[in-house]
Amino acid sequence: MAQLPPGIRFITSFSRDQWYRAFIFSLTFFLYASFHLSRKPISIVKGELHKHCAASHEVEVNSYKEYAAQIQPVKKPSNVSQCGWEPFDKNNYKQLLGALDYSFLCAYAVGMYLSGIIGERLPIRYYLTVGMLASGLFTAMFGLGYFYNIHNLWFYIMAQIANGLVQTTGWPSVVTCIGNWFGKGRRGLIMGIWNSHTSVGNILGSLIAAYWVSTCWGLSFVMPGVIIAVMGIVCFLFLIEHPKDVSCSCTPSSSSKTFLNGASRFKVQMPTLNAKETSKPQDPEMQHLLIDSENCSVSLNSSTVVTGEGKHGTSAISFLGALRIPGVIEFSLCLLFAKLVSYTFLFWLPLYITNVEHLDAKRAGDLSTLFDVGGIFGGILAGLISDRLEKRASTCGMMLLLAAPTLYMFSAVSKMGLEATVVMLLISGALVNGPYALITTAVSADLGTHKSLKGNARALSTVTAIIDGTGSVGAALGPLLAGLISPSGWNNVFYMLMVADACALLVSLKIL
Q: Cα angle at 123 between 119 and 125, to 5 degrees?
């Protein structure tokens, strides 16, 4: 018999179950990366919506409108002044741009609390598909303001509010799906790698938006809108919510392992299943363990797979019931301050670089992607350390402790030149996004499958929504405060961020 080709040997070296897990891992990665890709353009376009205008080029409003009307058929829409796009060309532009951020993030924070509860009661695939198609529509709607020459502030605010609401369908859905497929074993590392989708999406969104920002900023929104809508169709065609949907569940090997689940640590004994045991209810912690080498052998009718599934009789958890899970409140408050810092960078970093380094909007957008590159390594490092130490909260506390002085160094060093800014962007990105990534993924999944839930797998979506929804309150406050404080100097913005990091550390002391 002829030897199999290397490629075929590689394919057959993995079990059917492992290929399904790898597929779901990759699919959910790109699905949520498209959400962040569609959120990033606003931060890139800010430098184009308001430009620093030289006194020698200032013109009277009435005379400029006459001039703009003459050149409109050639290249530029009307009302594009030397200072940017009306109404963002005024002296209070920072407050107006901050209002856009606040509109999106407030809607996102409010919607997130409802999204998890709704998502538990609907099929994930349908719920996520509708959310992605709607997100594409409202992201593109903002860009259509350029092509239809719209200068009404409320049009852009309403587009942001609508987009913020529909984008809440994403996070609870993908975390629930990935939690169904991957168990507690090495969850920190796996979800640290998986959570890099946020940074990958931010990087791609920055590059796509920056490509058109100086020539046609409307396309900086339309193209990401098209991309997330296409990914919504991919979600509808290919997303598998649960391993049992494809008759896939793995046989755990005999071992005993300690897991950190929120604020409590406990031991789970995992005996090897045999034919007699498959008819008995199993410990809920055994249901979705990550197995690398075992074959799938438990039948779809086995009761070990369906424990806690709503369609088999277990009701969804209430909002107050989720709050009673040990660690949910503490981690939610910690994420509030951590996300405040992260989203301030997300929405204001390109404008800060433009002001400090005196770069145009495109180059500032490209340079800001280094913060997200650092975030990728920070998320993976946080997951790896938390798995080794088996202490999620301590890992978050350690990174938060280092983040505050790093932010101070960033504010001082970034004014020394481009090279220093590059280095500090990478370090700050790692330390700021590390705790944020760990709490929103591994910690949320741990708490959503806490032993106190007695196998109620439907709680994961609600717990995830509570934690991320509370964090989104901080995400809304950060950019708003940055818009209000920045006119008094960028140093004050960094002081605000350092205080937020210190608060995140203080509220997590109880669970360290």
A: 100
Closest CA to 165 of 104, 254, 100: 104
* Six token digits for residue 389: 């130490």
Taking each helix axis from N to C end, the angle separating 93-120 and 41-49, rounded to the nearest 10 degrees, works out to: 160
Mean pLDDT of the chain: 77
Answer yes or no: is pLDDT of 414 > 80: no
Backbone phi, psi, residue 50, to 5°: -130, 125
From the list 369, 348, 25, the residue with the least C-alpha distance to 202 is 369
Beta-carbon contacts of 262 under 8 Å, excluding residues fewer than 6 positions away, are 325, 326, 327, 328, 331, 392, 443, 446, 447, 450, 511
Which are the contacts of 60, defined by CB distance < 8 A and separation ≥ 6? Answer: none
Complete DSSP assignment for 225-261: HHHHHHHHHHHHHH----GGGGT--B-PPSEEEEEEE
To 5 degrees, how large is the angle CA 377–CA 380–CA 45?
Answer: 50
Please give the Cα distance from 168 to 157 (Å, whole number): 17
Q: What DSSP element (H or E) covers 311?
A: none
* C-alpha distance across the termini of the chain, in Å: 60
Strand residues in 366-427 grouped as ranges (E): none
DSSP secondary structure string, 185-223? Answer: TTHHHHHHHHTTHHHHHHHHHHHHHHHHTTT-TTHHHHH
Cα–Cα nearest to 61, from 47, 84, 79: 79
Give the separation between CA 309 and CA 311, rounded to whole angstroms.
6
- Look up the pTM and report it: 0.72
In eight-state DSSP terms, residue 50 is: B
Q: What is the pLDDT of residues 280-307, one digit of tens each?
A: 444 333 333 333 333 343 333 333 333 3
The lowest-confidence range among 261-270, 406-415, 434-443 is 261-270
Angle of helix 459-485 versus helix 490-507 axis, rounded to 10: 150
- Note whether 105 and 471 are within 8 A (CB): no
Token readout for 259 is: 């897991």
Classify strands 80-81 and 84-85 as parallel, antiparallel or unpaired: antiparallel
Q: Which amino acid is at 392?
A: R
85 φ, ψ (degrees, to nearest 5)? -105, 120
Q: Are the C-beta atoms of residues 179 and 359 closer than 8 Å to each other? A: no
Return the structure tokens found at 106: 């407030």
**Closest alpha carbon to 222 in 161, 164, 142:** 142
Q: Write the pLDDT tens digit of every residue in 121-148.
A: 789 999 999 999 999 999 999 999 999 9
What is the C-alpha separation between 330 and 338, in angstroms, rounded?
Answer: 12
Task: Give mean pLDDT, residues 501-510.
Answer: 86
Strand ranges (E), 390-461: none
